[in-house]
Amino acid sequence: MRVFWILFAAEWRHFRTARGLVLLCGLLLATGVYGIYYGTTEIARQRQQLAALPELTRRNVDELKVKFPGPADAGDIGYYHSTFAVHHPDAWAALSLGLRDVNPSYVKLRLLGLHNQLYATDNANPLKLLSGNFDLAFVLVYLVPLLIIALGFNLLSAEREEGILPLLLAQPIGATTVVGAKLAFRLTLVLGLAGLLSLLGMLWARLPLDGRVATWLALTVLYCLFWFGVVLVITAWQRTSAVNAVALLGVWLLLVVLVPSLLNLGVAAARPVPQGLELTIRQREEIHGGWDRPKTETMNRFFALYPQWRDTATIRERFVWRWYYAFQHLGDQAVAPLAAAYAHGLQARYDLVERLNWLSPAINAQSSFNALAGSDLPTHLAFQRSATHYHDSLRAFYYPFLFRQAEFTHADYAREPRHSFTSLAEVATARRGLPTLLLSVAALFGLGLLLLRRPIAPR
After folding, report:
1. Residue 458 lies in a domain
2. Would 457 be classed as within a structural domain?
3. Is residue 11 within 8 Å of residue 182, measured between CB atoms?
4. Cβ distance 357 to 367 under 8 Å?
5. SS3 73
6. CA–CA separation, 136 vs 34, rounded Å?
7. What confidence score (pLDDT) does residue 120 get?
8. CB-based burial label for 218 (10 Å; 0-12, 13-18, 19+)
9. In angstroms, rounded to a whole number, what is the distance separating the alpha carbons of residues 66 and 113?
């Protein structure tokens, strides 16, 4: 054990003199700090945006009060009045933005057809959406392995190439001890940087110190151990530094870039999802066709869904709001199976990726971080379901005015339903990634130690 610590201390002295490695670690630290800054700034921007929505609603109400100073037809109010379904982020989303950079954090809703509003998004730079936003999870999943590769590609080959290895092996020191000391120092260094960034991010984002802290740190440690296991296996392969570097970069490209891309293509083919364009076109055709259908036909179809309004007055006018909103809702009903299939298809894709994430530790770690932060796909689908229920509550609020032909007064604005949805962490989903990473780490270290038992050639 004394020899182990002597070698460990020697690695520290060697590291301090290697300015390139010190600069590389400093660069990773700076990159991680920027990732924390970007994530916290983005979530703060979204929160500020969401906090401004009630004021926008109030201004809209004030404008309508001026436009309709007295009792008004609820149909006019439902057409011109807009409200919002809001998706508040979890505090942990600052460390792992997940899908919050591509999906809207709120939906502007009126009493019109739901689906055209539900899937409407603001314009965004497609190149930025393709590359994704920069957060701490990105640094840990994609950049930390590169640092591990830079620190470990010449773990033992450098001594062989410099002629030092024969002197080491001539001492009463086993190759396992030499490699273990070198690996332990690098592991301590990387885990120290990753842990420092994680704790800094938690403090910066003012996260609640709950059980998710241990899960985040466990995921970080196991993911780093996985890549050190890869370094150990490549080192035990006993090739030159150049070959080791190429092999390690090849593994990084395979597991971080190639496998996720191929898995995405395979899942898309295995779990096809209806095209959103088809849903939009069919809904518009149904709604536009409502103008030409006999009002009796439209209302009978609507009353089949809402028989409580069947005893209302027969429509004899050329235009009446309750008929207009009836065929708007029938347009939603016409595409409801497509919308359900679309959401089910997305969930099926997510579930399939979860079952296959053992093929890539990067997918496993990233999806676990997103689940921990409540920024994954199931959370977004839950928000869409919540927005759908909110639109149902708006219709339930306005229908009595429309079908009983009651006047809408200024006091009724305050009784309109409000919406709020906050992301919930999928802790169980995040923890499901831990056993897979643990098994991968055990397999790699077991293989590496087995290979190290072979005689090590000095040259």
Report:
1. no
2. no
3. yes
4. yes
5. strand
6. 8
7. 65
8. middle
9. 26
CA atoms within 13 A on the CB side of 129: 11
Distance, C-alpha 376 to centroid of its chain: 4
What residue ranges of the chain have pLDDT lower than 70?
1, 120-132, 157-174, 275-277, 455-459
Let me know: does 430 contact 378? Beta carbons within 8 Å: no
- Look up the domain containing 248 and give its range: 2-452
Q: Enter the pTM of the model.
A: 0.90
**Residue 159: closest CA among 241, 248, 245:** 241
Task: Confirm if 448 and 232 have CB atoms less than 8 A apart.
Answer: yes
Distance CA 57, CA 60 (A): 5
Whole-angstrom distance, CA of residue 197 vs CA of residue 26: 12
Task: Count the Cβ atoms, other than its own, within 10 Å of residue 55.
Answer: 9
Q: Look at residue 292 and give its three-state secondary structure.
A: coil
117 found inside a domain: yes
pLDDT, tens only, 354-374: 999 999 999 999 999 999 999
Helices vs. strands in the chain: H and E counts, helices first: 19, 5
303 phi and psi, to 5 degrees? Answer: -65, -25
Place of tokens 């100073």: 69
Closest listed residue to residue 424, CA positions, set 366, 458, 378: 378
Token pair 């990473």 in the structure block, residue: 437
pLDDT at 276: 65
Using CA atoms, how far residue 81 sits from 111, 312, 420, in Å, is 8, 25, 18
Is residue 51 exposed (0-12), middle (13-18) or buried (19+ Cβ within 10 Å)?
A: exposed
Closest to 157 measured CA to CA, from 251, 244, 247, 252: 244
Residue 335, in any domain of the structure: yes
Rounded Cα distance between 36 and 17, Å, is 29
End-to-end CA distance of the chain: 27
Residue holding tokens 């030092």?
A: 164
State the pairing for strand pair 83-88/421-422. Answer: parallel
Q: What CA–CA distance (Å, rounded) separates 279 from 440?
A: 42
How many residues does the structure list for the chain?
459
Q: How many structural domains are present in the chain?
A: 1
The pLDDT value given to residue 161 = 61
Instruction: Write the pLDDT tens digit of every residue in 305-321.
Output: 999 998 887 888 889 99
Q: Which residues of 407-446 are buried (b: 16+ CB within 10 A; e: fewer)?
A: ebeeebbeeeeebebebebbbebbbbbeebbeebbeebbe
The residues pairing with 106 across neighbouring beta strands, listed in sequence order, are: 86
